[in-house]
Design brief:
Shape: globular
Structural class: alpha/beta
Strand content: 15-25%
Bound molecules: iron/sulfur cluster
CATH architecture: Alpha-Beta Barrel
Radius of gyration: 16 Å
Distance between the termini: 13 Å
Number of strands: 8
Largest sheet: 8 strands, mixed
Order of helices and strands: EEHEHEEHEHEHEH
CATH topology: TIM Barrel
Helix content: 25-40%
Number of domains: 1
CATH superfamily: Aldolase class I
CATH class: Alpha Beta
Length: 193
């Protein structure tokens, strides 16, 4: 769908320069999705790995974030292999609803209530990022936190449209449950993609 240089706005690498590769197509359909235009992969042209790599090389960051849509609907083996051969650090942001492909330095696992993830992503995740849209989501988040590895970073992130109502609840929750940290979509605050 698009390739662009920006700062990672969410999670552990928040604020770090990154090149984003957004792959089109999503099998989850979250009602609050902020990139609904990514859902229909037929709207976007196919690109080969060489063209993607050339575009990535035109930017300076050594961190490449492959996101979507749901990026793992496409096989990422060759793309990550070639990116890593060229010295890039590959990160993926996935709902964990489809089989893992690719080799990754960082896996952001962000399960959604709209489609159950595959359990094995809990053990693969370097960070667990749960979007909080409703107070009942805290308990749902804890279910995943119990299953991830000890090293996995835990993030709660307000759903953007509900942010003014839900962020104070997240802050209170994190004060009582300090294993979690707050992830804000800082790219939206500073108006970058
Ligand atoms: Fe949107 Fe991501 Fe949900 Fe897909 S998984 S609908 S891209 S928020």
């Amino acid at each position: 769908m698009e390739i662009f240089p920006t700062l990672q706005g969410e999670g552990y690498y928040q604020g770090h320069a990154s090149t984003f590769i957004r792959l089109a197509g999503c099998n989850v359909a979250c009602v609050w999705c902020d990139v609904k235009e990514s859902w229909d992969e037929k709207k976007f042209p196919l690109m080969n790995v060489e063209s993607i790599l050339n575009k990535v090389k035109s930017y300076t960051s050594k961190i490449v974030v492959i996101t979507g849509g749901e990026p793992l609907l496409q096989n990422c083996d060759l793309l990550t292999k070639e990116l890593q051969k060229a010295g890039y650090q590959c990160h993926v942001e996935t709902s964990g609803t489809t089989k893992l492909s690719g080799t990754w330095q960082w896996i952001t696992f962000s399960p959604k209530k709209f489609k159950n993830p595959i359990d094995s992503f809990c053990q693969l995740a370097h960070e667990l990022k749960i979007v909080i849209n409703h107070p009942s989501d805290f308990e749902w988040a804890e279910g995943f936190a119990k299953k991830v590895s000890k090293e996995c970073k835990l993030f709660l992130q307000p759903e953007w449209e509900k942010s003014s109502m839900i962020t104070p609840q997240i802050i209170e929750y994190i004060k009582k449950n300090p294993q979690w940290a707050l992830s804000l979509q800082i790219h939206k605050f500073v108006n970058i993609p």
